[in-house]
Specification:
The complex is a heterodimer. By secondary structure, chain A is mainly alpha-helical. Chain A contains seven helices and no strands. In chain A, 73% of the residues lie in helices and 0% in strands. Chain A is globular, with a radius of gyration of 18 Å. The N and C termini of chain A lie far apart (61 Å). By secondary structure, chain B is an all-alpha fold. Chain B has a domain of 173 residues. Chain B has a two-stranded antiparallel ribbon. In chain B, α10 runs parallel beside α12. Classes of the chains: A mainly alpha, B mainly alpha.
Chain lengths: 225, 488
């Protein structure tokens, strides 16, 4: 199937999904905390536009509610909250050294291939709900996980976590045009509470452990030291 | 349905009430009162379902049948008895100065919040809400794990948050895939996540997508069940949080996650027409069972040790449900009850024991039977029960499970028996010096309320000697629902 055979909105939607994946890679490589948060907000914006376009293509206008929920939560509220926390904790300019960045990038590339492989048994349903978009959403989830694994700073791990949530939302949008509204709201509520709890945790970690570096969380072991 | 509404509302009301009551002594009493009301409502609900069959609410959001109603009842019961224990325990913690007034308020409201989410997860008809409720349960307990604000407890809380959060996201991806598969067969947007609708159409759904979905669901809910290799959060969260929370985590949360997994297996099996889901479950279950049994030996913290024992038993139950077949499923359902009751009783005693000795380190808790006979005997008898000694109920359910295994997969009996022996040795090697021997200087008596332990262990004993007819009928109904045929 050639991309030129699709209608213009569909082409835009596919391009946006490619950009969403790209923004995941950007986050993986971003070393400064504030740029990382900005990239996360950018992914939210892309997600918002993709959802709006898909809502118009499919004619399922209740998707627009989810789209604006995303805009409010993932573009405005969560990044804003994170920025505020980062300023209050005074770690805005901190730069995190990522060990073996090129290796991690290659691994992320591998994850994308893996996602495409996993999505193979999914039969094509319509032009939009292709293996392509489902594979991309899975890749975003897995790269989010990789961000959590490869980072040591608690804030970066939270951004990775939220980026996973983005991938899941995208999966729901492209595969089934969103979840039922009650579930959608439930998930949004969970995310909201999670952000709040993360904020509480930052301060707890800061006061008790002294730094937001999770490498220093090493006291719990299987055997007595 | 009114009974369910009562149970949910009383719990929801509890969350609100607990978050405004500043006086912690009255809060702990009211907490108990609310749990008694919830239990009463659950009892009514259970009787209703037992007599009239499954109930579906008008808006199709809630569905209660033989399988989940007994877990709802168990949930409410353990929640109630744990709050009996929680009162004096938390009062002692308050005296030690480990928690302040504000944190007592947090503790009580989160305790109720956790029970509420568990009730919603069990009674909902919507797989999406099921996910939301289980995630919310994580969120409710994460601040409880870090309640003491020590380095270790914050570390445990963060680990719990991240590992469970990441794990459970996989389950959401799986749920989305189920919805995707249902979209092709189920008419009407929005009905595709309803359990009642899905079950009716299970056989027509796309096998490829559902198989993929089940893998994600197994990873996701398996993390919450505590299956190896995603179990790391469990011992940390159990050992660092307040003990009443360990009791309800081990006794309830793990069960609910397993419940979700079994429900989804019921959905996936008819579509796939093979044993893929069951085999996957059996594989991870066996791994968990063996690894947890071995790791039991290495523990220095008594709560960590018993949380490994929980992983081991969850492995055993997952194995039973994975194997399928009426006998194994019946055994698995029974094991859910007896494990919950025994394990929460053990955590209650361990909580008192750690107050007696002033530490959770196994090497420093000694001679409990001398210094504090009820606690010492409680720990010894509880450990006997959990290790699978006859005549306790754990023996009965394990015996049923082994009988089923010998029939279906004779070779698996070998690792199972060896695993049980290894776990048994690990438990007794640590518990024996804790209860017998000479108590060290500095142990003091604590105001221990052993009633929850006595009630739980008496029930487990009763279930081991003879299962009441109505309960057997009830479990049989659930077994018929899950695998299509009963044992009676």
């Amino acid at each position: 199937m050639l991309i030129t055979a699709l209608s213009l909105p569909e082409q835009v939607a596919l391009t946006l999904s490619a950009l969403i994946l790209l923004s995941s890679f950007l986050m993986l490589a971003q070393t400064r905390i504030d740029s990382l948060i900005n990239t996360f907000a950018l992914q939210g914006v892309l997600l918002f536009f993709a959802t709006v376009i898909i809502a118009f293509i499919s004619g399922k206008y209740d998707l627009l509610i989810s789209a604006f929920l995303t805009l409010a939560l993932k573009v405005i509220f969560i990044p804003g909250q994170l920025r505020r926390l980062v300023v209050r904790l005074d770690i805005r300019r901190e730069i995190e050294v990522i060990g073996k960045p090129s290796l991690i990038m290659l691994f992320a590339g591998g994850l994308v291939l893996f996602s495409y492989y996993v999505a193979l048994p999914i039969r094509e349903l319509s032009l939009l709900t292709t293996r392509n978009t489902i594979a991309i959403s899975l890749a975003v989830v897995l790269i989010g996980m990789l961000i959590i694994i490869s980072r040591r700073k608690a804030v970066a791990q939270v951004v990775g976590f939220m980026s996973m949530e983005n991938g899941l939302f995208f999966a729901a949008v492209v595969s089934t045009f969103g979840m039922p509204m009650v579930v959608e709201l439930g998930i949004a509520f969970d995310v909201l509470v999670a952000v709040f709890l993360f904020g509480v945790f930052f301060f707890q970690i800061r006061t008790e452990i002294g730094s937001l570096d999770t490498d220093r969380m090493n006291r719990l072991t299987e055997v007595e030291k | 349905m009114t009974a369910l509404a009562c149970a949910l509302l009383s719990s929801a009301f509890g969350v609100l009430l607990m978050s405004v009551i500043g006086h912690w002594r009255s809060a702990s009493r009211i907490n108990l009162g609310i749990n008694v009301v919830t239990f009463g409502a659950a009892l009514f609900l259970a009787v209703g379902v037992f007599e009239h069959g499954p109930i579906l609410s008008d808006n199709k959001l809630f569905y209660v049948d033989a399988f989940n109603v007994y877990l709802i009842l168990l949930n409410a019961f353990v929640g109630m008895t744990t709050s009996i224990f929680s009162g004096p325990y938390m009062a002692h913690e308050r005296e030690l100065g480990r928690v302040g007034n504000k944190r007592m308020r947090l503790y009580h409201s989160m305790f109720q919040c956790f029970l509420l989410t568990m009730l919603i997860a069990l009674s909902t008809n919507n797989l999406g809400i099921l996910w939301v409720a289980i995630e919310a349960a994580t969120l409710a307990t994460v601040l409880l794990v870090s309640l003491y604000r020590t380095h270790e407890s914050i570390e445990a809380g963060w680990k719990y948050f991240i590992i469970c959060g990441v794990g459970i996201s996989q389950a959401l991806f799986g749920t989305i895939l189920v919805y995707f598969a249902a979209a092709k067969t189920v008419p009407g947007h929005g009905d595709g996540l309803l359990w009642t609708v899905l079950q009716a159409n299970a056989a027509h759904m796309d096998a490829g997508v559902l198989a993929l979905a089940f893998v994600f669901l197994l990873v996701g809910y398996g993390t919450k069940v505590g299956l190896v290799p995603l179990h790391n959060w469990l011992p940390d969260a159990h050992s660092e949080g307040p003990t009443p929370m360990s009791a309800i985590l081990s006794g309830l949360l793990l069960n609910v996650a397993l419940y979700a997994l079994v429900r989804l297996k019921m959905l996936v099996d008819p579509a796939l027409g093979n044993h893929l889901a069951g085999s996957l479950m059996m594989g991870f279950a066996l791994l968990s069972f063996v690894v947890a049994g071995i790791l039991l030996h290495r523990q220095y913290d008594v709560k960590r040790m018993f949380s490994y024992s929980s992983i081991e038993h969850m492995g055993l139950m997952t194995f039973a449900f994975g194997m399928g077949g009426p006998l194994a499923t019946f055994g698995g359902l029974l094991h859910m009850i007896v494990h919950s009751l025994t394990k929460s009783a053990i955590f209650v005693t361990v909580g008192h024991a750690s107050h007696v000795a002033g530490t959770q380190v196994i090497g420093k808790i000694r001679g409990l039977i001398r210094s504090n006979p009820p606690v010492g005997w409680g720990l010894l008898i509880g450990t006997c029960a959990i290790a699978g000694f006859p005549p306790f109920g754990v023996f009965t359910s394990e015996f049923l499970l082994f009988t089923a295994t010998i029939k279906a997969y004779p070779w698996f009996v070998l690792p199972l028996l060896m695993g049980l022996a290894v776990a048994f040795a690990g438990l007794f090697r640590n518990v024996q010096p804790m209860v017998f021997g000479e108590p060290p200087e500095g142990q003091h008596k604590v105001d221990a309320n052993m009633w929850p332990v006595v009630i739980h262990l008496a029930l487990v004993l009763l279930l081991g000697i003879s299962i009441p007819t109505f309960l057997a009928q009830w479990l049989n109904q659930a077994t018929i629902m899950i695998v299509g045929q009963g044992v009676l």
